[in-house]
């Protein structure tokens, strides 16, 4: 059996914001190269250990986690975890012999890429956020290429290594413009304005509580609501659906067809994770961002603020959600001119071929290595 032409390790994870871009890059590598051997390396106990095999790829886990903000047993174990993870990362690299290692952020990418750099294996990191995570900031000096989604990242990274590629997103979200009729049928919608509410992979308790209070007002304003609650709030939200028994209220634990949800929406209320933002740029809808305040280094607020500066979105911090979301939504719904401006400006930021651009950089590094 012929050996695949190239072998890659893709490392990182912890949240969907790291995992789904990693899978998109792997899929693009397979499509472009026709044949490749790809191994993922994640953190034991994190969601990548289930999501990556479900996507059809092999994964190995490192015993690694982040530092807690207060003194805990986990923090005392941290130095031991780092040492053990570096040793295992070295063993994985020695056994698998990758041609190139890709880091997508998250705990596991630190030890793996550190050892890859030590062994002189070519490396690339992909930073999804406008404010980089600490792992990628620490790795930046030694990697070959840094793929980013925002401008002015030379504040954090060496400018000569930066390539603006955008964030990889699911293929089905690249163009939803022709799906409105199918979306209305799928969700059972009438020809009335639609508000879509979605939280991130870490949940949206404050958003859900506020939306529950706003349901009567949204229905009275003759709007329809598609509300993705996540698993923890779903039962509570169903009470609202039963109470109003209105065709205008659609409650879901999770939405499998996000392409149709985006196609149906006139206004979106969302967390401000990097991948959610990249998706929303592609679907070109007016957005009210409510950043997750507990996100690492408050990167969701920084992500959203980057769009607000370009008049491409609106933002409400979670502390103000109860006092501001109702009026903000009502004013936006009644202002077609503002909706159009937000849609046009966010569309300018879309990069639909981000996966292809990242793979271009991977191949450029490999070709440069060949020519040396």
Description:
The protein has 372 residues and is an alpha/beta fold. The protein has 2 domains: 7-167 and 354-371, Rossmann fold, CATH 3.40.50.2000; 172-347, Glycogen Phosphorylase B (Rossmann fold). It has 14 helices and 13 strands. The protein has helices spanning 16-33, 48-54, 73-96, 109-118, 134-139, 180-187, 205-220, 234-244, 258-264, 274-283, 299-308, 321-333, 336-347, 354-371, and strands at 7-11, 37-43, 58-62, 100-103, 123-127, 145-148, 162-164, 194-198, 224-228, 249-252, 267-270, 287-289, 314-315. It has a 7-stranded parallel beta sheet with strand order 3-2-1-4-5-6-7, with helices on both faces. A 6-stranded parallel beta sheet has the order 10-9-8-11-12-13, sandwiched between helices. It is globular and about 65 Å long.
